[in-house]
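Entry 14. Structure prediction run on the chain below.
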Amino acid sequence: MRSYRTLFRTAEFTPFLLSFAASAAAQTVGGLALGTLVFRATGSPLLTAVSMFGPQLAQLLGGALLLSGADRLPPRAILTALALAFAAGTAVLALPGLPVWAVFVVILGQGLVASLGGGVRGGLLNEILPDDGYVLGRSVFNMLWGLVQMAGFAAGGVLLAFLSPRTCLLLAAALYVLSALVTRLGLTARAPRSTGRPSLAATWRTNALLWSSRPRRLTYLGLWIPNGLIVGSDSLYVSYAPGAAGTLYACGALGMLVGDMAVGRLVSPALRPRLATPLRLLLAIPYLFFVLRPGVAVSAVAVTVASVGFAASLVLQERLMSQLPDGLAGQALGLHATGMYALQGVGAVLAGSLAQLTTPATAMTLMATASVTVTLTLAALGKREERQLVVPAPGMGVVDQVARKSDR
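Output returned:
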């Protein structure tokens, strides 16, 4: 599948995207409103960053407890219930006089249940599309995320100039309700992809299986760590440029859109695997210039260029899908989403802590330096793994060596 026309003719793909778009719009508008509310109340870069990205930390716990449900529960029912749960939680955040500690209790609870959503949505996309349409479909999914972020952060910035953050949170809650309605009315009821009841034991057993392969471990780490460190830098936009944070987030979404369109539609399947490392380096290097404390215009250009590098996730997700046993797409993609969001939360906490001790510009530069270092290290480990796959061990033939490596 190489054309958008063919892709959108696929049954259920359009309502699937629309339900996600409403949820993503709620997340962007609500996140910016909440970050602004917390910053106005506390003046703390750390608490502001954690309020916007901290819920991802809870996904680590959710991934350990709930992730087996990604393949063992009916997807339409779960996505509908999750959207309604987020609507209720966001409405609670809009309550006047809600103390800061209660805000964090609510958003951490949202992060916990959200750990299930990434796996369910990823597995459902894999069911809706044929095998040869996954990369193109995922690129459209990511492009939509970028477009909604651009519109959501830009609209959020405008709304916050005229409305209170609490009113914007209520608008976000309404968008979550819309997402639930589109999911319930637009998607077909499907049986779970796997048999058995969701359980802690099943979650841990499958996660252990997914983690047991060294090539899969390197792919997961490549998806999680460089991305998470740079999202930590992103979490400082409000404290770096309080009056232009919406602009910077919108520029970042534009860069993501360009990167996903180029990699998903224009780059050939043969070339895509070679782009993983260059794209991850592109993701971090422009942030090194924040050590110079550039103004809003230069910062916007740097953020736009860097965000093209988020398309590395498309390349690595395609690699991950090729490494999976049958029947585990939902939990494998859920583990990817959980780890990615958890590392983004860690990145936000780390970046916020560094900004508290130094300045937001210094913290962003340090996070970018760490991301470059991790990317180069993982690239070196990946090349070493490839050499081991083709160089026979002493006394072992090439076929035996490859067979041994495939069991790792």
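The chain has a mean pLDDT of 82.
Filed with the rest of this week's runs.
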